[in-house]
């Protein structure tokens, strides 16, 4: 069942560490994660600092009228994309060290990442100052999952050509 035991163990450890870090970040109240005070200390922004933009998100609006809120939104949602890209790649690395075929590994990696994203949003709904929005799962998190699968596919193509 496992064709490369050291790689499987390493992948499993990294996967669990990644999930643990993501869980801990989700478990932190928003007040402790608020980046706006730090951004205000280090970066001078005005409403003209960004192109005119308004993003509708979970019934609210985020716009360049509040530049620090806008930048924090971009940073936080970019974090979603990045962390789910990494999580999906770790699932793929782990599953590819077993006898699971490539298509099944991609499918199971997507499903595992998707289920973790759903459970993470649900978990956040219990944390003070945090909200669990399924919109994060099917936009930002899923974008990261798809990006991870695309990177995986490109790496496989490059390796195949060599």
TrEMBL record:
Membrane-spanning segments: 81-97, 104-122, 142-159
Keyword Plastid appears in the UniProt entry: no
Signal peptide: none
Coiled-coil intervals: none
Superkingdom as given in the UniProt entry: Bacteria
Keywords: Membrane, Transmembrane, Transmembrane helix
NCBIfam families: vanZ_1
Protein's UniProt name: VanZ-like domain-containing protein
Organism, scientific name: Falsibacillus albus
């Amino acid at each position: 069942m496992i064709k490369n035991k050291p790689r499987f163990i390493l992948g499993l450890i990294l996967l669990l560490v990644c999930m643990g870090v993501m869980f801990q970040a989700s478990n932190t109240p928003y007040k402790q994660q608020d980046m706006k005070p730090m951004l205000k200390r280090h970066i001078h922004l005005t409403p003209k600092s960004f192109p005119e933009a308004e993003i509708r998100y979970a019934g609210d609006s985020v716009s360049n009228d509040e530049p620090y809120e806008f930048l924090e939104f971009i940073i936080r949602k970019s974090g979603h994309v990045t962390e789910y890209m990494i999580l999906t790649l770790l699932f793929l690395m782990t599953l590819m060290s077993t006898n699971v075929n490539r298509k099944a590994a991609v499918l199971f990696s997507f499903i595992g990442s998707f289920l973790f994203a759903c459970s993470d949003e649900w978990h956040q709904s219990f944390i003070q100052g945090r909200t669990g929005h399924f919109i994060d799962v099917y936009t930002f998190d899923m974008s990261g999952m798809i990006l991870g699968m695309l990177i995986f596919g490109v790496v496989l193509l490059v390796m195949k050509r060599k």
